[in-house]
Amino acid sequence: MDSPFKIEGPIFIGRSWAEYLKMFDLDLEKLNNTKILDCAAGASSFTYFLSKKGIDVSAADLLYDKDPEFLKRRCQEHLHALVESLGKMEYEFVWSFFKNLNDLKSHRMQSCLDFNRDYKINRGKKYIKADLTQLPFEDESFDMVLCAHLLFIYDHRLNWNFHLSAVEEMIRVSSNEVRIYPLVKNKGKKSIFVDKLIKNLPEGLETEIVEVDYQFRRGGNEMLRIVKE
Ligand SMILES: C[S@@+](CC[C@H](N)C(=O)[O-])C[C@H]1O[C@@H](n2cnc3c(N)ncnc32)[C@H](O)[C@@H]1O
Description:
Blueprint: H1 17-23, E1 36-39, H2 46-52, E2 57-61, H3 68-87, H4 101-122, E3 127-129, E4 142-148, H5 160-173, E5 174-181, H6 193-200, E6 205-211, E7 222-228
Parallel strand pairs: 1-2, 1-4, 2-3, 4-5
Antiparallel strand pairs: 5-7, 6-7
Helix pairs in contact: 1-2, 2-4, 3-4
The structure holds S-adenosylmethionine.
S-adenosylmethionine (SAM) is lined by residues 3, 5, 7, 10-15, 40-42, 44, 61-63, 131-132, 148-150.
C-alpha cells in the first residue's frame, strides 16, 4: 500500500557505522544480545558492520525494493550533490568528526559501497522495504529501534501526522527503546516537533534527551531516547 506520507526525492545516502555509534551513544561491546532495527537506514554501513560483529541487526527503508545498481547510482549522485552544496556553506557545520569536505566525501562513499555489497547479498533478509509509518514487523520484534536523519530534520516537508505515526510505529515494534537523531535542522534550529512529540506520546513511556559525542550540524549533539517502562 502506498504511504499517505511522502517526501519528494528522498536523499538516499548513509552515515557510516562509526557515525551511528556516536550519534546514538552506542557501545559495541554491550550490544551482543540486543536485536536492533535501523529505520530509514538508507545507504548506512551500520547494518553491514554490526552484522559482521555477530549482532542481530536489520534495516528498513522505503527504497529497499530497488535493485543494488540503482541504489548505488542514486547514493553516488546524491552524495556528489550533497558535497557540492555543503561546499557552499562549510562554515555552517562543525568539522570535528570529519577533518574537511574531502574526508566527509570519502568516509560516506565507503559507507555507500559497504552498504551496497551487503545489500546485494542480504536484500529481503536483513534489508526490508518498509514505510516508517507501516512497519511490516510484529509488536515488540526488536529490543532497540533507531531512526537517523529523517524525522525532525525534514519538518518542513514531513508533517506532524507523519512524525507521530512514525514514532508510534517504532515504539510498537520495539520491546524496550527507540532512539532518534538529530533533533535539529540546519543552523542549530531545534525542530518544532521535538517538544510536541514528547508531550503527545502515549502514557507509560519515559523520554530523555541525551547529549552525544557527535556533532556535524550545529547543535546536533543531542539524541532523543524513548524508553518503555
Ligand atoms: C537522509 S537518508 C538517512 C539515511 C541514514 N539513516 C543516515 O542517517 O545516514 C533518509 C532515508 O529515509 C528514507 N525514507 C524516506 N521516507 C521514508 C519512509 N516514509 N519510510 C521509510 N524510509 C523512508 C529514504 O529512502 C532515505 O534512505
